[in-house]
Structure formats: structure tokens, C-alpha cells
Model the fold of this input.
Amino acid sequence: MKIVKADEEGLRATAATMRNGGVVIYPTETVYGIGCLPSDPDATKRICEIKGRAENPLPLICSDIEMARKICKFNVTAEKLAKAFWPGPLMFILPSKVIYPMWVSHGKKTIGLRVPGSDVSRKLTELAGGVIVSTSANKAGEPPATTAKEAQSQTGFKVDLVLDGGPSTGGQSSTIIDLSGKEMWILRSGPITGTQIMEALKR
Done:
């Protein structure tokens, strides 16, 4: 397993590893994530096995909102909240336009995605093709990892490469909001509160 710094060379090496079917650990603005290309069935299966979680879909991050629109069907609420909070720690659940391997979708017609606030993770995503898997680099049920060392330990050193960007500043996983139906539901509380979301929708 290789460890690289989150500089230009390291970002390119990490993106190349994913494009070649690898699984990597990398920093986001919230916690450390584990990722791969979502179109790769073998790599996405590995992530589920590493996390010890096989029943939940794998969330994605996109390099920008244009890429996100290619993957999901955006509605008026999603457009408004994306304008208010992206790039940032707010994940949307929306109807998917893309058919991904079962390890990503688990048979659901929706997908979770966001544009991250971290320059490092956005650049990495761009270099990897515009969209990557982004789930927290920890065993299911364990606290999220905020350093590369914690992430390595929690994932059992079973990844191909680690992109070390120093301690993550957030320490709290992103807020998740389901916008796939007629009503809006906050599925996980996080850095962006329900009050902030409601205020943004009034503007």
C-alpha cells in the first residue's frame, strides 16, 4: 500500500490508481473517505467488504454541479439547495440517470451525491473522470476517521493507496437530505442544519 501527499503529483497518482481499478483513501472537508470509480463492480464490491457493510448504497461525489446533473434528475428544490450549499457537506438523494453496479445502487433507483467543499477531493474527482465513490473510511458502526492514519487502521490496511492531506477539519459526516419524492426528509444530521436548509428554500 502506497501513501502519497495531497499535492499535484499525489492527486494524479491517486486518480490513476482509481482509473486502474484501485481503491483509495482520501481527505474531504468532513472526514476521510474511501473511494473508487462507481462504474467498477470489483472495486465497489471491495469497498463494501472493507467497510463490512453490504446493504446500503454507496454515495458519490462529483467535481461540479454539471456532472451531478448528468448523474441524477434534479428538481427545483435540489437546484436551489445546490446553489446555496455546494460545494459543501450536503448530500442529496435523487433519482439516478445512470445504472451503476449493484454494489453502488443495491437495487435502488436513487443515488446519493454531492459536490465536496474540499479543493483536494474536488480536484481528485475531476482527475478521475468527474465522479467517484465517497463513503467514510471506517468500519460500519465505528466513528468516522479524521486522519489518514485512522482511516488506514479502520479499513484494515486493505486499500491500494492513501492520499494524506493532514487532519480533516470537519470531523462530522455530511448532512443527507432525501429529495427523491414529493416530500423532503433529512436522513442524517450533519454540518448543515435543518434550519439552514429551510432558510435557503425561502430565498
Summary: The longest strand covers residues 90-95. The longest helix spans residues 8-19. The chain is about 35% helix and 20% strand.
